[in-house]
Amino acid sequence: MPDLLPCPFCGSRSAEIAFAGAKRFACCRYCSAGMPPRETEAEAVQMWNTRTDLARAQALAALEKARLGFLNLIDYGGLDQARHGETLAIAGELDQAIAAMKGGGK
Ligand SMILES: [Zn+2]
């Protein structure tokens, strides 16, 4: 079995393969971070060892969702007009965070 890389969330080397019914999943014994169950142990290991990309993709999706929700709030007048400049600045910061993540920077 290939080695499991350190946990992407807490950095500990206490990751292990656990059972979920007939499936297997990798998880961290220290902080309980875990990956979705896979059919085989090899798949579970691979998923854990490429989790940095997965974590990034999930963070990016969350940011984009937050940005969209925020812009909808502005559009529907859910935010005080007097604070319009402030809300646009926050939208700009979200844009920058998304661009930074898309730009890579491993
Ligand atoms: Zn951990």
What's the overall geometry? Answer: elongated
Oligomer: single chain
Spatial extent as radius of gyration:
19 Å
Q: What do the pLDDT scores average to?
A: 82
**Structural class estimated from helices and strands:** mainly alpha
Q: Indicate the low-confidence ranges by residue numbers.
A: none
Beta-strand fraction estimate? 5-15%
Helix content: 40-55%
Number of helices: 3
Give the CA-CA distance, first to last residue: 26 Å
Order of helices and strands: EEHHH
Largest sheet: 2 strands, antiparallel
Provide the list of bound ligands, each named once.
Answer: zinc ion
- As laid out across the biggest beta sheet, the strand order is 1-2
Number of structurally distinct domains: 2
Number of beta-strand segments = 2
Give the topology, please.
Blueprint: E1 15-20, E2 23-28, H1 41-49, H2 51-75, H3 84-102
Antiparallel strand pairs: 1-2
The structure holds zinc ion.
Zinc ion binds near residues 9, 10 and 33.
Give a brief description:
By secondary structure, the protein is mainly alpha-helical.
Question: Would you kindly provide a written description of the structure presented here, covering whatever features stand out?
Answer:
A hairpin with a 2-residue loop joins strand 1 and strand 2. The model has no long low-confidence stretch (mean pLDDT 82). The chain is built from three helices and two strands; from the N terminus they run ββααα. The relative contact order is 0.12. The protein is elongated, with a radius of gyration of 19 Å. The protein is mostly helical and 106 residues long. Zinc ion binds next to loops.
